[in-house]
Amino acid sequence: MSPSHKLASKDSTEVDTSLIDAFGGVRGMVDMTVPGFVFVLLYTITKQLGVSAWSAVGVTVLLAVVRLVRRETLKHAFGGVLGVAIGAFIAMKSGKAQDFYLPSMIYGVLLGVLYAVSALVRWPLLGVMLGPILGENMTWRTQNPGRLAAYTKATWVWVALFAIRAAILFPLYWAGNVTWLGVAKIGLGVPPWLVAIYLSWLILSKAPPPIKVASEEEEKEEEPDHERV
Q1: Whole-prediction pTM value?
Q2: What sections of the protein cross the membrane (predicted)?
């Protein structure tokens, strides 16, 4: 394998890993899926809103504790606990089980709008997130038009994902069909997320390689000894 192919392979692997990490990782998606599964399962069996809602909250807290014990990042776990707790609170206040899913549905719509706006103003959110992780910072926007185009295209993939989710979930919410809403919420979680990850990786793997920005530590290491004195 030639050095250029090795470099391209390395960059593709970095993009693949960075994409998964940027969106919470597989573990993060599982943490967000399990509470919803617990809620819809218990509600379908018992029809008890309180038991179902607070059981989901308890599972989310338990998953966060497991992350804490394993010394993993709590960033996505905290967001999960907060989202599930707000959903449980709203559902209990309204007495409508479908409201358990409303906060995350609204959040998805807002994210879709944010991604779309970022692509339209040529600051695609995917590039903003991945640039620092891949060591290119914002060079993709000012020095690498091919990557700007790729980040923009990949960002639209996520806009489409959020739009499809909303188009399926909101009619079920308005119909008050809690069981099918919960099933759809779970089904529209990890599988489409993996598809969006793959399509984004596919787009970025065909883009020009990132222009790396040397960190201060690297610059000091490259600096001749006589210049450090």
Answers
A1: 0.79
A2: 28-45, 51-69, 76-94, 106-134, 155-174, 180-204
